[in-house]
Amino acid sequence: MAKKSRRQPATRNSSSGHRSGNAAHSAKDSLASHQSAQELDSLVPAFVRWHREHGILPELPVLEQLTAFFPIYTEISGGAPVTAMDPGLIADLVEVLNERDADFASFFCASLFEYLHFLRHTGRWSGDDENHLILHRVLYRGVLNENVLP
């Protein structure tokens, strides 16, 4: 009886080879991430200047909330700009946050609410008026820990 040779399983090396369609997806994600980073590089300093004059909440916690949130939004939205956020995605996120920690959800919504006002006040909102209105309503209800889903 012939001995069968044992074949070692192939090792995966992230820097090599074909990955059944993931390379194109990865390149798209990388481009979206790069565009988002560039967008944030210009938005954050402008928001800080605006917030110092118009903001209500403490600056540092708001900035921490937003800078933590923007990369998450970019990922869950497939690279959509943070200047035209999808009210449905935000509503879903707020609902989950509200279930886990109502105080955190409220402060998150208040922070995003100030950011939304910054975008509108400075002409940086790039979405349509209807989505702005819906997002405004979602965040307002989120601040109050009310149901944000229609």
Indicate the topology.
Elements: H1 22-54, H2 59-76, H3 87-100, H4 102-121, H5 129-143
Helix pairs in contact: 1-2, 1-4, 2-4, 3-4, 3-5, 4-5
Structure description:
- This protein is an all-alpha fold and 150 residues long.
- It is built from 5 helices and no strands.
- Helix 1 packs antiparallel against helix 2 and helix 1 packs across helix 4.
- The longest helix is centred in the N-terminal third of the chain and has 33 residues.
- The N terminus is likely disordered.
Which spans have pLDDT < 50 for at least 5 consecutive residues? 1-35
* Coarse shape: globular
Structural class: mainly alpha
SS field, number of helical segments: 5
Mean pLDDT: 80
Biggest β-sheet: count, sense, barrel?
none
Helix content: 55-70%
Q: Percent of residues in beta strands?
A: under 5%
Strand segment tally: 0
Spatial extent as radius of gyration:
21 Å
Straight-line N-to-C gap: 70 Å
Helix-strand string: HHHHH
Short description:
The N and C termini lie far apart (70 Å). Helices cover 67% and strands 0% of the residues.
Which features does this protein show?
150 residues; mainly alpha; globular; disordered N terminus
